[in-house]
C-alpha cells in the first residue's frame, strides 16, 4: 500500500528565483541543513540543462537528528518548475520512493509562489514504516527544508550579488519562455 507525504509553503518571491535556488545543487549547503545533493550536468550547459538532468544519477545525503543517510536517485523529470527523482534501488519491491519538488506561480502576484514537496513510498515495507515514526520524521525534514528555502529565497532576492547571479542564470536558461504552473 503506497504512503504519500505532501508539504507546501508560500514563498514571497518569484518562481524563477526559487527554481534557480532549487536547481543549484552545489550551493545547497548555504541554506539547506537537511539535504546535500551533487551530480547532474553542469549549470553552464545552458540550453540543455533540464533535458540533460533527466536520467542523471544524483548523490543525496539526508541529515536528520539521529543519523545521516545517503542514496543515489535517478532524475525522472526536470523543468524550471518541477524536479522529480526516484530512488532507483535494486529492491524496489521492498521500498521505493518518488520525491517531487514543484514550484507553482501565484495567480495574483508575480512575486509569490508555492513550493510543494512530497514523496510517494511504495513497496512491501511502505505500510510497516508508518508504525515506526519514519514518515513523521520525513515530514518534519521536508517542512524544515521548505522553511529554509523560503527564508533563503526571501532574503537573497534583495542581495545585490544574488540579483546579478540570477540575472545571468535567467538569461542563460531563458526562464521567460517557461510557463510555471499557476495556482
Automatic annotation (TrEMBL):
Domain of life: Eukaryota
Database matches in InterPro entries: START-like_dom_sf (IPR023393)
PANTHER family documented for this protein: CHROMOSOME 9, WHOLE GENOME SHOTGUN SEQUENCE, SRPBCC DOMAIN-CONTAINING PROTEIN
Protein name in UniProt: SRPBCC domain-containing protein
Amino acid at each position: 500500500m503506497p504512503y504519500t507525504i505532501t508539504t507546501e509553503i508560500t514563498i514571497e518571491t518569484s518562481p524563477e528565483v526559487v527554481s534557480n535556488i532549487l536547481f543549484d545543487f552545489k550551493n545547497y549547503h548555504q541554506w539547506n541543513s537537511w539535504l546535500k545533493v551533487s551530480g547532474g550536468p553542469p549549470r553552464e550547459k545552458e540550453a540543455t540543462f533540464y533535458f540533460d538532468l533527466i536520467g542523471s544519477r544524483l548523490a543525496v545525503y539526508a541529515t536528520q537528528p539521529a543519523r545521516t543517510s545517503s542514496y543515489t536517485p535517478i532524475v525522472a523529470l526536470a523543468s524550471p518548475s518541477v524536479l522529480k527523482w526516484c530512488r532507483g534501488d535494486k529492491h524496489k519491491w521492498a521500498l521505493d520512493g518518488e520525491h517531487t519538488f514543484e514550484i507553482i506561480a501565484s495567480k495574483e502576484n508575480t512575486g509569490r509562489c508555492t513550493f510543494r514537496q512530497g514523496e510517494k513510498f511504495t513497496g512491501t515495507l511502505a505500510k510497516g514504516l508508518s508504525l515506526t515514526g519514519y514518515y513523521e520524521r520525513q515530514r518534519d525534514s521536508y517542512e524544515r527544508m521548505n522553511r529554509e528555502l523560503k527564508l533563503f529565497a526571501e532574503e537573497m532576492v534583495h542581495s545585490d550579488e544574488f540579483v546579478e547571479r540570477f540575472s545571468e542564470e535567467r538569461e542563460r536558461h531563458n526562464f521567460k519562455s517557461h510557463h510555471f504552473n499557476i495556482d
